[in-house]
Amino acid sequence: MAITSDGTQAFGIEASPVTINSVVYVAEGLSFTYEGERKDISDSNGEPTGATVVPRNTTISGTLQLAASTTEPNVRQQELVLSGTRNDGTFIIVDCGEAETQGDYVKVTFNGYKKIN
Which of 24, 29, 62, 66 could make an S-S bridge to 106, C-beta 3.0–4.6 Å? Predict the structure, then answer.
């Protein structure tokens, strides 16, 4: 019996499957980065009085198993929706790699950021 790439095998990934343009994909190896920036605080004389951290973007990278071999592998500028995890939300895919075939599966790597509004 051949393995069918129908997007239903989640491979134990918490945030899988994901939805892009109403198409279901299996996500593998998702990695999240929570960026921040240190801001120094000074008094009116320019003397340092403290520091704080300002949250910035949340970025995402990983691999998507395409829903079918006919699915368009160019997922740039698409919205990826995650639900049921601590990283719930909508992510914008900025770039993606070339599609690679592994057996009956077609996979593509990607990078993106969390949509703010």
Answer: 66
8 within some domain:
no
Contacts of 105 (CB under 8 A, 6+ apart): 3, 5, 65, 66
CA 105/CA 103 separation, integer angstroms: 5
In total, how many domains does the chain have? 1
Question: Does 9 map to a domain?
Answer: no
Please report whether residue 3 resides in a domain.
no
Residue range 69-79: mean pLDDT, rounded = 74
- The model's pTM is 0.69
- Which pair of structure tokens corresponds to residue 47? 């003397």
Given a contact cutoff of 8 angstroms between Cβ atoms, the answer to whether 53 and 38 are in contact is yes
Distance (Å, rounded) from C-alpha 47 to C-alpha 88? 41
For residue 13, the model assigns a pLDDT of 54
Residue 73 counted as domain residue? yes
Distance of CA 40 to the CA centre of its chain: 31
**Letter for the amino acid at 6?**
D
